[in-house]
From TrEMBL:
Span of domain Polymerase/histidinol phosphatase N-terminal: 6-71
Sequence intervals crossing the membrane: none
Annotated Pfam families: PHP
The protein's name: PHP domain-containing protein
SUPFAM superfamilies listed in its UniProt record: PHP domain-like
InterPro entries documented for this protein: PHP_dom, PHP_domain, Pol/His_phosphatase_N, Pol/histidinol_Pase-like
Gene Ontology molecular-function annotations: 5'-3' DNA exonuclease activity; 5'-3' RNA exonuclease activity
Coiled coil: none
Gene3D superfamilies, per database record: Metal-dependent hydrolases
Organism annotation: Bellilinea caldifistulae
Amino acid sequence: MHELVTNLHMHTRYSDGSGLHADIARAALQAGLDVVIVTDHNVLVNGFEGYHRKNGKTLLMLTGEEVHDQARLPQKSHLLVLGCNREMARFADDPQRLIDRVRESGGLSFIAHPRDPALPLFHEEDISWDDWQVTGYTGIELWNGLSELKTQIKNWGDAIFYGFFPQYLAHGPHPEVLARWDDLLRQDHKVVAIGGSDAHALDIRLGPFRRIIYPYEFHFRAINTHLLTPEPLSGDLTADRKMIYQAFQQGHCFIGYDLPAPTHGFRFSAQGKNGKAITGDELMMDSAITLQIRLPLKTECNLLKDGKVIKTWTTHEVCTHITREPGIYRVECYLNYLGKRRGWIFSNPIYLRPPRWRTNPFQGSQWSQTTLPAF
């Protein structure tokens, strides 16, 4: 498998960001990314998909949109829409209809910043996702880089500190979002977890004082979604676009907080008599299944089954666990950075199914792997 470091959920001057697509491409190349997906609010900006190259490095830029009902007060329930070739904001008034239209158009939908609390200091309202009765979405943004700011700022001192020292901000996905995800997975919904930067390159002005806080390049070196693909980028936009969105749809990805240490090279796999699986895959139980985790460096590594930690390693780069129990297995890794324990890697699950299990193609929040959309 090939690994494509991908950053998604970012905004330009076409909505409420301060930069241009060219600024994003330049920052992404500088940060060493492979793919960026720009998602301006309620507009599908055409004409910017393609490749950027510098010093032998290639970056693919794709565009989607972040859709929400602008007439709703407060403006809750934002949805990231990827892989559609037409505007979806016109369906924003009904989240279920929006999700259905995205799926019918061959696209993917991810619930954006599921927990996004109010920040009265800056007159920001709570814009968390409230419409949890919906079905058919691809996944959720498990970790949002900018929303986490709203959970940390309590006063102007905090705001100034994190504005000048953003490297101290990230701690991990919000516990409520992790709990929600595990609950959905226990209900046999295949929900793909992604990490989003929510980059705006915020242009802050206070009298004569002006500063870009959380610039694009900072976000691109922090919370990324690492895609596992069968091939590297080919230079064929149509083929690469299809390959990238299929990796998202299949859950062949993990979230990596790359600022403390690169997460490139992490792998989580399962091996049994019925074959091999990676993150996002299902594997039928036969007898024993061997789960293997490969880490870029030795740190705290937790293996979870159905949302509960069942084993922890702290001194291994290769971690192995043999199981005979069906369940939903995923990995969380933590490391110490700037004096605190922080989330580092969050994998998508491997689904170990009992014999004769059959997945309904439209059960829960994900299609089966036999019904991939045609991007």
